[in-house]
Amino acid sequence: MYHVNEGKMDALVARFRDHTDAIFKKHGMKSIGFWVPEDAPHSRNLFIYVLEHPSRDAAEKNWAEFQADPEWKRVKAESEANGPLADHIDRYFMDPTTFSALN
To answer: What is this structure's pTM?
Structure first.
């Protein structure tokens, strides 16, 4: 969950749409979905996405490779030339419940 800085939502969404998701795929990170809340104020400052990994170890490996990727470093630097897009990011590892559609 990205807590987006004021006025930066469009830039963050564009970065995910145009670059980040493709770089995720390159590193074995499967995107389940991307969401923006419908109602203000969260529609202006909250971006949520879910990734699937085969295991927590694989997730840690994938994230390390993603963070080290020169393309990601370039895209992030370019998109944040006028300041960071997010104030902070909440990250959770989750398991689906037995009654989840993902199970």
So the answer is: 0.90
**For the chain, what's the residue count?**
103
Whole-angstrom distance, CA of residue 76 vs CA of residue 60: 20
Tokens 């970065």 appear where? Answer: 15
Domains, in order of start, for the chain: 2-88 (3.30.70.100)
Q: How far is CA 50 from CA 9, 14, 44, 47, 81, in A?
A: 18, 17, 19, 11, 26
Write the pLDDT tens digit of every residue in 2-45. 999 999 999 999 999 999 999 999 999 999 999 999 999 999 99
